[in-house]
Amino acid sequence: MTTATMPVSQKDFEKAQEQLKLLKKDPGNETKLKLYALFKQATEGPCNSPKPGMLDFVKKAKWDAWNSLGNLSQDNARQKYTELVSSLISAESAGQTKDASPEESRHDDYETIIVTTKNNITKIMFNRPERKNAINHQMYREIIKALQEAGKDDSTIAVITGNGEYYTSGNDLNNFANVQPNDMEKMAKDGAELLKEFVSCFIDFPKPLIAVVNGPAIGISVTLLGLCDIVYASDRATFHTPFSQLGQSPEGCSSYLFPKIMGLAKANEMLLFNKKLTAAEACAWGLVTEVFPDGTFQKEVWERLKAYASLPKNSLAVSKQLLRSMEKEKLHAVNSQECEVLKERWLSDECLNAIVSFFQRKSKL
Ligand SMILES: CCCCC/C=C/CC(=O)SCCNC(=O)CCNC(=O)[C@H](O)C(C)(C)COP(=O)(O)OP(=O)(O)OC[C@H]1O[C@@H](n2cnc3c(N)ncnc32)[C@H](O)[C@@H]1OP(=O)(O)O
């Protein structure tokens, strides 16, 4: 959470040092390192001392923490130190332990998704439950922004999930509604560009990206699972890619990744013939990593993710990038081609009839 900048005097800073000594509970190594780093930065400025040897673990951890503060000003470091001590004191007096489990912080500026960070995990949650989390243009843009930020923030892993009953019902069909005949070509061109950028963010995401599929998933939300590193699903989830039913064609690199994941014969059933999979089938076909009973889904999955997110962050990131690197160029080429084909599909009578049918309440999946 961002706090307003309030100048902190030298006297407040010294008082915070005294208060820290009164803490009854050990605040945990992570917090102690943060305090050490902020203290050094506040009193000596940016870290200029030579990096300790790899095997000098304690000194190296302290040096890394200090060095990670970069050019943070001494005033700001003093302020952050004072705030951290004050939050530790309040947490202790409220009977809470404030160790390696910081509070959840909510990222501002999003309307269609909720983005939070806690326990080294940035969670991006589709948040239009009354529309089954259908992805409108604003949501595509917000997810792009959230992924770009999550790729750079301090979190170790990122999670994508849905709020409410659905994971998501896929593309919001209103994205095609109310378009004047003269604007159709522009709608298709802009849509293809947005889609290409959106899928690219998944291809390039630099850290482990985990899908927590809390309920039914449709269309693009299913194809993107092939670009996630782990997929956990509730046994209530289903997986449906009704592209031909909608007069459309596969996206999210599924035309390339699904045959690799599940074999061509099974990919054809999903991508050509609209076969809807249960969670158990999706797991047997390799699209889902593990299925959990719905009653214990959230508890079991988040406990597991919390443990994963405490693993060394950089090691996870480089390993993920290694696993993806050989395919990246290919995936971008597939994404471009899929978007080109879709651009044409969106102008086809087959697609337009399917959309009209949905809005006339004649067809639902
Ligand atoms: C930049 C563009 C990129 C494009 C990328 C392309 C991607 C391809 C795809 O994702 S294809 C998949 C598209 N999705 C669908 O076709 C799903 C359509 N929805 C349904 O079939 C049904 O709504 C349902 C099966 C998901 C749920 O049915 P149910 O009866 O349980 O609930 P309702 O239909 O009453 O839903 C509640 C309201 O939400 C609206 N809604 C749900 N999903 C969508 C959607 N995808 N698009 C638009 N609107 C959706 C639904 O219309 C209801 O609204 P209402 O209360 O006003 O009637």
From TrEMBL:
Enzyme Commission (EC) number: 5.3.3.8
ACB domain location: 9-94
GO molecular function: delta(3)-delta(2)-enoyl-CoA isomerase activity; fatty-acyl-CoA binding
Highest rank taxon of the organism: Eukaryota
Pfam name, any one: ECH_1
Gene Ontology cellular component list: mitochondrion; peroxisome
Subcellular location: Peroxisome
Keyword terms: Isomerase, Peroxisome
Reactions this protein catalyses: a (3Z)-enoyl-CoA = a 4-saturated (2E)-enoyl-CoA; (3E)-nonenoyl-CoA = (2E)-nonenoyl-CoA; a (3E)-enoyl-CoA = a 4-saturated (2E)-enoyl-CoA
Gene3D superfamilies to which the protein is assigned, alphabetical: 1.20.80.10, 2-enoyl-CoA Hydratase, Chain A, domain 1 (3.90.226.10), Lyase 2-enoyl-coa Hydratase, Chain A, domain 2 (1.10.12.10)
InterPro entries per record: Acyl-CoA-binding_prot_CS, Acyl-CoA-binding_protein, Acyl-CoA-binding_sf, ClpP/crotonase-like_dom_sf, ECH/Chromodomain_protein, Enoyl-CoA_hydra/iso, Enoyl-CoA_hydra_C, FERM/acyl-CoA-bd_prot_sf
Protein name in the entry: Delta(3)-Delta(2)-enoyl-CoA isomerase
Natural source organism: Anser cygnoides (Swan goose)
Species lineage: Eukaryota, Metazoa, Chordata, Craniata, Vertebrata
